[in-house]
Amino acid sequence: MERSTKDVWVGLFVLLGAAALLFLALKSANLLTLQWNASYQVSARFDNIGGLKPKAPVKSSGVVVGHVDAIRFDDKTYQARVLLRMDQRYAFPKDSTLKILTSGLLGEQYVGIEAGAEPDNLAEGDTISQTQSAVVLENLISQFLYSKAADGPSGSTK
């Protein structure tokens, strides 16, 4: 009888350990979002979102103030419509600007928000109109190569 009691406790401990590892794996991969704080949803339109994904963080001054809730394509304006879930304790003016930024040189993308100066704050359902699309590395390289080709041969002698 004593052995079976120990087996139950060991099995319970192993299950708790496995659950903790699963929780940490999902949290570190940004696939699990536990949020008990009140929040509000705002939207924005971008010409190019690059590699932005749902659940990506929304940061202001390096602090996470929300996350990307969903990304949809608007077939009337041919733009990406990004829905952001902002933490209620962070209030931003209605004329705030959004940029899609990259962590490091080739890291994951996130949305950066810069506060504006208008006295009214963003509320549920508002749309942020001032946005800056993602910088796509391939486009920068092709522009650089095209400008170098347009300059002509650089090693010409007289």
Overview of the structural elements:
The chain is of the alpha/beta class and 158 residues long. The protein has helices at residues 2-28, 137-151, and strands spanning 39-46, 57-60, 63-74, 79-87, 97-102, 109-114, 127-128, 131-132. The chain has two domains: 1-32; 39-138, no CATH class. It has two helices and eight strands, in the order αββββββββα. The model has no long low-confidence stretch (mean pLDDT 86).
In percent, how helical is the residue content? 25-40%
**Residue windows where pLDDT falls under 50 for at least 5 positions:** none
Radius of gyration, CA atoms, in whole angstroms: 23 Å
Strand order of the largest sheet: 7-1-4-3-2-6-5-8
Number of domains: 2
Q: Give average pLDDT, whole number.
A: 86
Report the strand count: 8
Figure out the total of helices: 2
What letter string, H or E per element, gives the SSE order?
Answer: HEEEEEEEEH
Biggest sheet features: 8 strands, mixed
Principal-axes geometry comes out as extended
Beta-strand fraction estimate = 25-35%
User: Helix- and strand-based class?
Assistant: alpha/beta
Task: Provide a brief overview of the structure.
This protein is an alpha/beta fold and 158 residues long. The chain has helices at 2-28, 137-151; strands at residues 39-46, 57-60, 63-74, 79-87, 97-102, 109-114, 127-128, 131-132.
